[in-house]
Design a protein that fits this description.
Elements: H1 2-11, E1 12-13, H2 29-32, E2 36-40, H3 48-61, E3 67-72, E4 87-91, H4 99-102, E5 110-113, H5 124-128, E6 134-137, E7 148-150, H6 159-168, H7 182-192, E8 202-205, H8 207-215, E9 223-226, H9 239-247, E10 251-254, H10 257-266, E11 270-272, H11 291-304
Parallel strand pairs: 2-3, 2-5, 3-4, 5-6, 6-7, 8-9, 8-10, 10-11
Antiparallel strand pairs: 1-7
Helix pairs in contact: 7-9
Length: 306
């Protein structure tokens, strides 16, 4: 116990500047024996991956406590990839506590996990509605809305989550990796190859990223599949099918954070153009900030192969 308390003392940032907000946290008891668990999955498509990696750990570490997940409706099916399905509560266009969770309630002493590096504006209202719970996050900077901030050495996912769990004394699940559900895989095969049902190698890209490569006369050796844009035949796929298409690609070339996140989570070779520096930071991959670096990274990937 003293080892855990020592790590907590060194690594936790407890932001209590909002006087009277939130519960008194009893360490390490509240962490080791939570009365309830809730995990938030954010509104952007790439947000689901930190939530899923964290969910597998919480299910394994607290197998006797029901895990509640708060996520966008479009991502509901992705939580079927976990060892067992948690209790999923969906919200609409903006994050909020849905009636299915607020009516039943989470008991005092529950842990609320916010598995992201910073609090974004769209999440403020939702976090304000759970101020009576212990709210845990690996934030890079403190926030009045999170009363247990765990500082981590790595800015990259999923290492950031592993380091947070290590500080809290929660055994991180290194074994779990996302796997496309068989029904989604079969549906993607039928869409991509309706006659034979057998998909040939392809590259997933965005129309704007592909134009940059074509303008630079960079080689594109395989069929390209775009999941957005008016001319795309795949633009109306649901979230599970889009994920299956990305997971089955030979490579991904994108200037979209959404597709970048999918490729990173499934370990698909990916080249990204992140003009605003807003892409999710993922272990082992770096997005380019400039078009010329983006084209150079693609040429480098072609030379290395996949």
């Amino acid at each position: 116990m003293m080892g855990l308390l020592g790590r907590l003392t060194r690594a936790l940032g407890l932001d209590r500047s909002g006087s009277g907000k939130g519960p008194i946290i009893h360490l390490p008891g509240d962490i080791r024996e939570p009365r309830g668990l809730c995990l938030f999955s954010g509104p952007m498509e790439s947000d689901v991956w930190p939530a899923l990696f964290m969910a597998s750990t919480l299910q394994r570490a607290f197998s006797e406590v029901e895990l509640n997940v708060l996520c966008p409706g479009r991502d509901d099916g992705l939580f079927n990839m976990l060892p067992w399905r948690p209790k999923v509560h969906c919200y609409g266009n903006s994050p909020e506590m849905p009636p299915s969770l607020s009516e039943n309630g989470l008991p005092d002493g529950s842990l609320f996990f916010y598995p992201y590096s910073k609090v974004i504006d769209s999440d403020v209202r939702m976090l304000q509605s759970v101020m009576r719970l212990t709210r845990i996050a690996p934030l890079d900077s403190p926030s009045d809305l999170v009363n247990l901030v765990v500082r981590t050495g790595s800015p990259y996912f999923p290492e950031k989550l592993e380091q947070m769990c290590g500080t809290l004394g929660i055994e991180y699940d290194r074994e779990w990796k996302p796997t496309v559900q068989r029904h989604a895989e079969r549906a993607a095969e039928q869409i991509m190859a309706p006659v034979t049902g057998r998909m040939l190698p392809y590259i997933v890209t965005t129309p704007s990223a592909q134009k940059i490569l074509e303008r630079s006369r960079a080689e594109i050796p395989l069929r390209t599949v775009t999941l957005s844009g008016q001319s795309s035949e795949f633009k109306d796929l649901d979230r599970e099918l889009k994920t299956a298409v990305v997971a089955g690609a030979s490579a991904v070339v994108t200037d979209s954070d959404d597709i970048w996140g999918d490729a990173c989570a499934f370990g698909v070779p990916v080249v990204g153009l992140d003009r605003e520096g807003s892409f999710m930071k993922w272990h082992g991959v770096e997005a380019s900030r400039k078009e010329e670096d983006f084209v150079g990274a693609w040429v480098g990937l072609l030379k290395r192969g996949w």
